């Protein structure tokens, strides 16, 4: 149940078109559903404004399908699936109308969202090898109702490539900086703009990068103010947080 649906339910009670017992039963049925191997949090959207997201890695194709099917049956209009492999995408796609992107490993079922964010989210990468993580962030933000601008392969090894996009950077409401190696991109961007910068270290790099730990530590030690950091390769977390920031003004008005 989404927040708007809960408000409609309460208005029906207030107007007398639904009695208290019916409303109480509906709310009682909603909190979670036990499938045996998973307990689906149907109240997530009501509490947090965004429905539960399916983390596909480690789940079988059938498990992903059953969870998604249960969500749709409960009235969830859109289902987002992260870290979904191609085998699972084929299985689920044969049973539900699935949109799947192999680069980001993002699956999406349901209605295309309205872009109702306050501004634009820019997703920038240090290199081409960072694009899978960046696309996870970008597509997550898009499925949560945001306009996303992509600036790929603009790392500090050729910083003029980044400076050629100053207009897009300055106009952004939030910027997601995705980089491996030494992870310097986030600090450079953070020193240029007045909006929040979400840094995503990636596991891209040679041996001494330690699978992204080097970039993570660099980003955590950034001297640029306004830079926050999510976990290594966590494009989803960055996209979700960027969406939250980009919807603050709208939620305040409501």
From TrEMBL:
GO molecular function, a single term: hydrolase activity
Enzyme class, UniProt record, top EC level: isomerase
Enzyme Commission identifier(s): 5.4.99.18
Keywords for this protein: Isomerase
GO biological process, any: 'de novo' IMP biosynthetic process
Domain PurE: start-end pairs: 119-251
UniProt keyword annotation of Isomerase present: yes
Source species, domain of life: Bacteria
UniProt keyword annotation of Isomerase present: yes
Pfam families assigned: AIRC
Gene3D superfamilies, alphabetized: 3.40.50.1970
Record-linked InterPro entries: P2CMN_synthase_LarB, PurE_dom
NCBIfam families cross-referenced by the UniProt entry: LarB
Protein name: N5-carboxyaminoimidazole ribonucleotide mutase
Biological source species: [Ruminococcus] torques
